[in-house]
Amino acid sequence: MDLDVVNMFVIAGSTLAIPILAFVASFLLWPSALIRIYYWYWRRTLGMQVRYVHHEDYQFCYSFRGRPGHKPSILMLHGFSAHKDMWLSVVKFLPKNLHLVCVDMPGHEGTTRSSLDDLSIDGQVKRIHQFVECLKLNKKPFHLVGTSMGGQVAGVYAAYYPSDVSSLCLVCPAGLQYSTDNQFVQRLKELQGSAAVEKIPLIPSTPEEMSEMLQLCSYVRFKVPQQILQGLVDVRIPHNNFYRKLFLEIVSEKSRYSLHQNMDKIKVPTQIIWGKQDQVLDVSGADMLAKSIANCQVELLENCGHSVVMERPRKTAKLIIDFLASVHNTDNNKKLD
């Protein structure tokens, strides 16, 4: 090797030694901090800005990109125990000329967490409507997207506030009543029967439980380093008591089947996206919705589990874009007729 090249590596190595060591130390000692930095970096890279808005003394935290235009704004609702940044992997593949809004659901991340708050699905729907009113997002009907718990909230929202919503996308939504329980639901019922709320599979408290949850939610088997698993757990542990309270609320009799009870009231064009290998919520729910919603399009993804947004972000973004284009073009053609 040329001596000058060797000297270059020596100089570069000595120059980068301190930041590299700092990074390695952070990775080993404070993985949760790195996870926060990761989300901050991707928000910045994708042009998503974080803002806060208040309804009386209640604070909503959200991120957004773009401004309202002739195309419908898109409001995105995340799932149980997640946060607004879970959508970043999909945002990456969405056109920059769309107005996107990702909100932290009630009690999550930067949105107010109150012991007095109604965490039922109806209660969450009312909170999201307050958020929509605060932003005046419903000045013009918007496209509503939700996944899992967020999909359940989105579906019920479309049933309760039909004039707010131009179209709807439900990604493996919760809230449906199946004729038979899958293995995951059977396990949950056993835990409820034994009052073992500390063992809810969706609320991990150790790296091992985090790994099991990722395997439950994903068809793709990610090899996640132990330090990252620890960081993911460290981020969640301070919130686990809240997650348990929320979980028991949304599986209660009041909320468990709220989407099922309201799906025939959804009148807007609707897109259903579901992973065929979903182990959390059975894919047969897509057919149930298609039979109850008049204008409904179903997209089933091969080799994909419950975490559709994380496993197939590019495909999810494309399906949303294509669906919006078809609905938008149909509306334009109706105006011309």
Describe, in plain words, how this protein is organized in 3D.
It is globular and about 50 Å long. It has one domain (47-335): Rossmann fold. It is built from 13 helices and eight strands. Helix 5 (149-160) links the parallel strand 5 (142-147) and strand 6 (165-171). The protein is 47% helix and 14% strand. The longest helix has 27 residues, at 3-29. Helix 4 packs across helix 5. It has 337 residues and is α/β, with parallel strands linked by helices. Its EC number is 3.1.1.23.
- The radius of gyration computed from the alpha-carbon positions, rounded to a whole number of angstroms, is 21 Å
Going by CATH, the homologous superfamily would be Alpha/Beta hydrolase fold, catalytic domain
| Biggest β-sheet: strands ordered side by side in the sheet | 1-2-4-3-5-6-7-8
Q: Tell me the CATH architecture.
A: 3-Layer(aba) Sandwich
The count of domains is 1
Please state the overall shape, judged from the principal axes of the Cα atoms: globular
Distance between the termini: 73 Å
Individual helix count: 13
Text of the CATH class = Alpha Beta
Question: How is the biggest beta sheet arranged?
Answer: 8 strands, mixed
Task: Give the averaged pLDDT, no decimals.
Answer: 88
Number of strands: 8
Strand coverage percent = 5-15%
Topology pattern, helix = H, strand = E: HHEEEHEHEHEHHHHHEHEHH
Spans of at least 5 consecutive residues with low confidence: 1-28
Q: Structural class, from secondary structure content?
A: alpha/beta
Find the CATH topology: Rossmann fold
Share of helical residues: 40-55%
Enzyme class: hydrolase
Organism: Pan troglodytes (Chimpanzee)
InterPro entries: AB_hydrolase_1, AB_hydrolase_fold, AB_hydrolase_sf, Epox_hydrolase-like
EC number: 3.1.1.23
